[in-house]
Write a structure and sequence with these properties.
With 274 residues, this protein is α+β, with helices and mostly antiparallel strands. It contains twelve helices and six strands. The strands form three sheets. The chain has a two-stranded antiparallel sheet with strand order 1-2. A two-stranded antiparallel ribbon has the order 3-4. A two-stranded antiparallel ribbon has the order 5-6. A hairpin with a 4-residue loop joins strand 5 and strand 6. It is elongated and about 130 Å long. The N and C termini lie far apart (90 Å). Keywords: Ribonucleoprotein, Ribosomal protein.
Length: 274
């Protein structure tokens, strides 16, 4: 699609077209990635409202006039630029709208962008300080969860949205599964593993968690290339030989070797049968 045609289409339609194209690609990828993609991009109805407040009742009364009107919970269209994947936005995005600057002036388009801060957050599992661009909502969520690790591990992919957050979450999950963190402090490691044991998912799902469609496609191609690569016959024979040596029964009694000189000597007595 050319740049001229792309600019004429609204963002929501472009997003639907892109998701439709990605669905065809995801359908041929492994099942663990399909599961992650459905959680990441196919759960819009489960997303936590950020820029609007849903109403529980279907009918709403105007407090001034007393008029009762029907209310529909329609979310505000939100734009998620590519820069979102470089930080933690906490579900926030860019809102496009119109502003009327005067009574007799025409409305003009305007974009509402979140406030960004470059701050340092601490990961208890990785035992590292990370310099990340965050929004106010992301900082509030980290404080509510009492730390970065708890926020990432307890928040689903459709609320994290950012690829940076998803990649950090994958790294945390691998660290908990392998128990390769805080090796010098095993007591703290045990406490953290026990704390986040309910957040764990199978290892096969973790290996495909947090990848974009393009990254998952490239990874799948590399796996297929490795599997289809022929193995040299000498390596296969060597492998079978090593396996036979490993499986050999060494408990067999050793047989006494007789030199050919003794066999040719006519004065030697033949070995008696037991």
């Amino acid at each position: 699609m050319s740049a001229g045609v792309r600019s004429l289409l609204p963002y929501n339609r472009l997003r639907r077209l892109k998701n439709t194209h990605n669905v065809w690609i995801v359908s041929v990828l492994p099942v663990p990635y399909q599961k992650f993609y459905r959680e990441w991009m196919g759960s819009e109805d489960k997303e936590t409202p950020v820029h609007w407040k849903p109403v529980d009742s279907e009918w709403v009364r105007n407090p001034e006039t007393g008029e009762v009107k029907r209310f529909q919970n329609v979310p505000i269209p939100v734009l998620y630029p590519d820069q979102m994947h470089e930080g933690l936005w906490g579900g926030e995005g860019v809102i496009e709208g119109l502003v009327k600057k005067g009574k007799y002036r025409c409305p003009v388009p305007r974009f509402w962008v979140p406030n960004f801060y470059k701050t340092v957050v601490y990961s208890e599992i990785l035992d590292k300080y990370l310099s990340i661009v965050v929004t106010e909502r992301a900082l509030e969520l980290i404080d509510q969860h009492s730390g970065l690790d708890s926020y990432l591990l307890n928040t689903p992919a459709y609320d994290l949205k950012s690829l940076l957050a998803l990649k950090l979450k994958r790294k945390l999950l691998f660290s908990i599964l392998d128990k390769d963190f805080l090796v010098n402090n095993l007591e703290k490691q045990t406490n953290l593993v026990e704390k986040y044991k309910d957040c764990l998912i199978p290892r096969d799902d973790v290996e495909w968690y947090g990848y974009s469609v393009q990254e998952a496609q490239l990874k799948y191609r590399m796996l297929l290339k490795e599997q289809s690569q022929p193995v040299a016959l000498k390596h296969e024979i060597r492998r079978k030989y090593y396996q036979s040596l490993i499986n050999k029964d060494f408990d067999e009694p050793p047989t006494e070797s007789v030199s050919w000189v003794k066999k040719m000597n006519p004065f030697t007595k033949p070995a008696q049968a037991p």
